[in-house]
Structures are given as structure tokens and as C-alpha cells.
Amino acid sequence: MTDREQYDAWLRDNFGADRVPHIATEFGFEAWKAGREALISASGAPVEIRVLEELG
Q: What are the tens digits of pLDDT across the range 21-53?
């Protein structure tokens, strides 16, 4: 799953993507992606953080 697909799924599950204006979706994605990159950089670890799907 790409970063964009992961963000879109999160947005859809939490806010109903059809209710969020397009410009807010685009800005939100850029902020979300920058936040992830900052966390990875700050950790000093050469890995990317990924969320595993819940088993249910």
C-alpha cells in the first residue's frame, strides 16, 4: 500500500472522504507524510514505520 493509499483509507475510515474538501485532503496528505518522515528521521533508525492490519 502506498502512502497515498494508506492516507486515503485513514481519511475515509475516520472522516468520510466525501465530506472533506479536496484542498483540505491534499494539504492533509502533505502534512501527514511530512510528519511520518520527521518521526522516521528523528528516530535515527534506517527503517520506515508501517502499521500492520488488525487480525480479527
A: 889 999 999 999 999 888 878 887 766 667 777
Amino acid identity of residue 33, one-letter, is: K
34 DSSP assignment: H
- What pTM does this model have? 0.64
Q: What is the largest CA-CA distance in the chain?
A: 37
Helix (H) or strand (E) segment spanning residue 2: none
- Domain regions of the chain by residue span: 3-43
Torsional class of 16: left (φ above 0), alpha (ψ -120 to 50), beta (otherwise): left
Which residue has 518521526 as its cell numbers?
39
The CA distance from 43 to 11, in Å, is 26
